[in-house]
Amino acid sequence: MGILEVKDVGKRFGGLQALGDVNLSVKENTVHAIIGPNGAGKSTLLNCLVGKLIPDTGSVMFDGQSVLGRTPHEINQMGISRVFQTPEIFGDLTVMENMMIPCFAKRDGAFRMRAIEDMMREKDIVEKAEAMLEDMNMADKHHMHAASMSRGDKRRLEIGMCLAQEPRLLLLDEPTAGMARADTNNTIDLLKQISDERDITIAIIEHDMHVVFSLAQRITVLAQGTPLVEDDPENIKGHPKVREAYLGETAA
Amino acid sequence: MLGLTKKDLQLMLIVTGLTMLAPFILNPFPESSGMAQFNAGYPDLMQRFVIFGIFAIGFNLLFGLTGYLSFGHAAFLGVGSYGAIWMMKLVSLNVIPAIFMGVIVAGIFSVAVGYICLRRSGIYFSILTLAIAQMSYALAYSVLTPITGGETGLQIKSTDRPLLSNLAEGETGRANLFGMDMRQSFELSVGDWLFTFNVGYYIAAVVMLIAFYVSIRIFRSPFGLMLRAIKSNQTRMSYTGLNPRPHTLAAFVISGMYAGLAGGLLVAMDTQVGPERMFWTASGEVVLMTILGGVGTLIGPVLGAGVIKYMENILSKINKDVLHEWFAFMPDGLEDFIVFLVYPFIGKGWHLTLGILFMLVVIFLPGGLVEGGQRISKWIKNRRKAKDTGGSTEPAE
Amino acid sequence: MEAIILQILNGLDKGSAYALIALGLTLIFGTLGVVNFAHGALFMIGAFCAVTFSRILTLSRTVIDETQTDFLGNPLKVDVPYLHDLFGQATGDAIIDWAVPLSILFTVPVMMFVGYAMERGLIKHFYNRPHADQILVTFGLAIVLQEVIKYFYGANPIPTPAPQAFAGSLDFGALLGFDPNLIIYPYWRIIYFVFSAIIIGAVFAFLQYTTFGMVVRAGMADRETVGLLGINIDKRFTIMFGLAAAVAGLAGVMYTPINSPNYHMGMDFLVLSFVVVVVGGMGSLPGAVLAGFLLGILESFASMREVLEILPGLNQIIIYLVAIIILLTRPRGLMGRKGVMED
Lengths: 252, 397, 343
Hints:
The complex is a heterotrimer of chains A (about 250), B (about 400) and C (about 350). By secondary structure, chain A is α/β, with parallel strands linked by helices. Chain A is about 35% helix and about 25% strand. Chain A folds into two domains: about 160 residues, 3-Layer(aba) Sandwich (Rossmann fold), CATH 3.40.50.300; about 60 residues, no CATH class. Chain A has a six-stranded mixed sheet, with helices on both faces. In chain A, strands 2-1-4-5 form a four-stranded antiparallel sheet, covered by helices on one side. The longest helix of chain A is centred in the last third of the chain and has 17 residues. Chain A is globular and about 55 Å long. Chain B has 17 helices and six strands. Chain B has a domain of about 270 residues: ABC transporter involved in vitamin B12 uptake, BtuC (Orthogonal Bundle), CATH 1.10.3470. Chain B is globular. Chain C is mostly helical and about 350 residues long. Chain C has one domain. In chain C, β1 and β2 form a beta hairpin. The radius of gyration of chain C is 22 Å and the shape is globular. The termini of chain C are far apart. The chains are: A alpha/beta (about 250), B mainly alpha (about 400), C mainly alpha (about 350). Chains in contact: A-B, B-C. Chains B and C meet through α6, α12 and α16 of B and α6, α12 and α15 of C.
């Protein structure tokens, strides 16, 4: 039994069958990559996992509980965090404030009104946020406006914010899309470090085969809304079906 | 002290000082001088400064923090006023229960309105609040006349017999605080200056200081942080496990209660209320105040309220004759020309000045007068130490 | 039956005004993505174009008419419009009588220019700012415009009558075979409705059948792609702004005989027109027109005495009530597209 079990999930947009009978099992404390050509339904699948979309058929179980019908913030509180393709951070706030928000969310839940306390006097939160910034090598950017940082820094901040919630499953949507090689390699190292040091499961959607084969312990190939194969990386590389699906695309 | 940082405490002390000494500060010109008409230190106007300051502080808690632009906030002010005056008519002429009633009624009303309006965001939210406020106005004006007094509104009459009062037969009740009449004033005459210390003003000022203090605490609290997070990125907010809805609703209700507090205080001061208090122009006015002063800043809304109320009451009274007097030193033709140029912007035309000022602020100073002040002080600092080019940006007050 | 027809007719003229203003608002929102709170002011300026034009026509010189005397027996001073000198008395008077419809010719270029100036001078700088900023700056502009008008024309409504020929009413009921005098409808309101229908039709035809309109519609759907095709979409959008201003202005001109223009009529209509736009669906032109007429007619039904006896005050709140219900049940309005203003 994996920590995330996707069974027979189907999703239809009008006449388009975006997902059909997707089955997927992500084992605890592994890095699981979901790859596939454009339009394979990777993003749709991800949106079904986090509550943005509700699948027409099938079930999605996280740690033995169904996530279907729950709102994104409820699913997040169950222990699933999501990193977006373009970094979603609080651009108007400082880096430190950005980091404090998930710390509050972890401690106080989805809504707790603390309107009179001074947030900087919440010792545990401040310490935790500072430690996390330290981990992300961003301690020097404390007072910067998040929007004014480089894309690579925004990405690291977003990952750090997700980790601050101590999620059990971290979902990444093409975390290196649009990044330069150096930034990509930094991100790979960071993710490796996270998966080695922390008690965490990572599911990653990725286009870049270099990233996929550097990180993944297990790979699912999605094509036209259905999983083609699910196997270990070394078996995927030479798989005829995968080559077929990627014909014309860059295979590793 | 008071759980504030040093900087916030400084601000709090400055505001306290200014409001307590307002009768002096607002009356800088001697009575007999021509400038005396610019004196704003009379009770009626000073009360308005602080009461609309409260209204704007509350509006800013919603718009400044969450970014939800309500175009119907005057409805809460109006509802609060109606609640307060009924309390005075029926129960007690003491202002405290009346003000409490205003806050509670406005709070309940804003829970209902917020529950409906907050299902939408952006312009839809603005239009929904506007629609509900206009509806309240129309109802108060017509159907609800038994409760609201319709067009003429409600006043305390000689026939009103509040439960907890011992009025003589035919005596008209007056708003009081444990026997102290709101209209009671102490006048201090120093040379050619006359300073008026009014009971009503000081009560309103103390309430405003409390409201201001609470707003500082909310700004610096985890809750305030969450509200700013909503303004910044709602997607990240929900994917961080936070539910935006109760946060915005709480902010909306707090904001509505501030409006109710202002409405209750207005009634405590002049013991009357009419439906025009809920008209959409009144809602527009609080938007103007907040933006003009500096949205999202602590002191901005109070400043904005002061500027607009000053213009409304002082600038609007200047007429052509006064202008001619001022420019009398010029040659006749030039005098007429200058008066011709200036006249459209003052007196009855003060709205024009306000509109232009407001547009300039939105275009060039999105942070309002507060940002203007900051820019000027930074400019002066930079000139002082011209060598020093680098400088960290100060967090907004 | 008669009552229902009468109420539908009564709703049509107000509905026409709502529809025209909402159409302009939607054009601006759809093309430029700007929420224009100053659109009501354009309606008001249009109305004052009619006032100005009729004042220009009646510019007069004063002569002493020896043939007439006042009650003291002195010769009477008479104002003679210059038009009498130009065209003779009969033609001159006829022109003055027809001031309102004639002022259309004057209004269109003026409004096009006002719209153009507004877009180039102010709105242009707000494309990339948040909607809240757009609302605020155009709100400020609306205040300024109405104060300027107030300064020049005063605070009181200025009666601007329709031509004598249209002063009466049509017994609409008699035409349909009902008893006479049951359904009476002023001629001018019929004209207003027909006029609005023509303008609305013209705008739709323009968008539908001209290349220019096609590009604009494509731009409304996907601005970026059209820009990538090498088409200067901004310039066309500027022209659309002028057009929307002209539509609002025409709505204002023709409305003057129905309601004497005053400086705050723009704001009064704007608040309602925004509600109309939202009910119709932000960004949907047919939605704006449909909702305009629908709300106009509903408002007129709600003011029937029979309705008011059951639900007093309904006429005051019906539009807002409908708006609230629609927004809560159909978030995108009656005909709104997906993804408009939903960030």
